[in-house]
């Protein structure tokens, strides 16, 4: 690999020195993680069992409390299974349905609430420019300025200064708090260990050996992040 290759890749992800990255298409598989703490970061789909980070095994859960979360659901036969369609479950409280990501229907003669899908809601992961209502624009984390456009880091407060979406939902720009100026500014260095998984919605993981945040489904992850670092040395 020569420098022109590095620069070319770096330019795709580094605009005006800002660090941009793309949320990956796949969540990291549980076996990516080798410690209980790292495994716990993806608690919605992985669990630490027998010193390994494994896919959550619904069948090992014996109570509704342990079962009704993280993609599992308790059946009327008191078995915990991988959640299928909402219509397959009923519970003695509406919370039972809510805990498996379903709405509750009207209580039946059996005193149980049948679960059902929530009514379709607006999708907030479309391009900013597609929203024509100010409230939808804000809910999609874009900003209204006669039309719906992407935010800049400077639009964020100290509490929300993490990263912003681009016009395209999956294109993100990393932000960092500049305490000297009290503004949220474009970051100049890449995703840190503590930001790696959460800022990428679980699609990147931290490589301890190389100390870079790498996309799980892509072997180019390391190359891209490395080149961002290089680019920023040149800018
Ligand atoms: C889940 O756990 C059960 C009970 O321990 C075991 O028999 C089964 O093989 C496990 N399934 C997976 C996919 O690991
Ligand atoms: C999103 O990012 C990709 C590179 O990952 C870039 O090619 C594309 O132009 C970006 N789209 C927008 C609208 O910024």
Quick tags:
235 residues; alpha+beta; 2 domains; 3-stranded antiparallel beta sheet; 7 helices; 16 strands; 21% helix; disordered N terminus; binds 2-acetamido-2-deoxy-beta-D-glucopyranose
Main sheet characteristics: 5 strands, antiparallel
- Return the average pLDDT rounded to an integer: 88
Basic shape: flat
- The share of residues in extended strands comes to 25-35%
Q: What count of structural domains?
A: 2
Order of helices and strands: HEEHEEHEEEHEEHEEEEEHEEH
List unreliable stretches of 5+ residues: 1-13, 221-235
- Please give the share of residues in helix: 10-25%
Distance between termini?
21 Å
Work out the helix count. 7
How many β-strand stretches?
16
Rg from alpha-carbon coordinates = 22 Å
Q: Give the ligands present.
A: 2-acetamido-2-deoxy-beta-D-glucopyranose
Oligomeric nature of the chains? single chain
Given the helix and strand composition, which structural class is it?
alpha+beta
Organism: Paramecium tetraurelia
Keywords: Signal
Protein name: Mini antigen
Signal peptide: 1-20
């Amino acid at each position: 690999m020569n420098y022109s290759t590095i620069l070319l890749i770096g330019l795709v992800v580094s605009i005006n020195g800002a660090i941009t990255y793309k949320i990956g298409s796949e969540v990291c598989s549980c076996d990516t993680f080798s410690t209980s703490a790292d495994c716990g970061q993806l608690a919605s789909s992985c669990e630490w069992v027998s010193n390994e980070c494994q896919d959550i095994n619904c069948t090992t859960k014996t109570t509704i409390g342990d079962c009704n979360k993280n993609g599992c659901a308790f059946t009327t036969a008191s078995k915990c299974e991988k959640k299928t369609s909402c219509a397959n479950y009923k519970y003695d409280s509406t919370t039972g349905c809510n805990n498996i990501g379903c709405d509750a229907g009207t209580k039946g003669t059996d005193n149980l609430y049948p679960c059902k899908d929530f009514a379709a809601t607006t999708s907030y992961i479309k391009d900013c420019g597609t929203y024509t209502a100010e409230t939808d624009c804000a809910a999609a984390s874009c900003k209204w300025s006669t039309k719906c456009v992407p935010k800049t880091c400077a639009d964020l407060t100290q509490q929300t200064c993490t990263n912003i979406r681009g016009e395209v939902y999956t294109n993100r720009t990393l932000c960092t708090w500049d305490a000297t100026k009290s503004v949220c500014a474009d970051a100049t260095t890449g995703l840190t260990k503590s930001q790696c998984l959460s800022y990428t919605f679980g699609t990147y993981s931290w490589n301890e050996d190389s100390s870079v945040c790498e996309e799980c489904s892509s072997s180019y992850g390391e190359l891209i992040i490395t080149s961002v670092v290089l680019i920023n040395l040149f800018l």
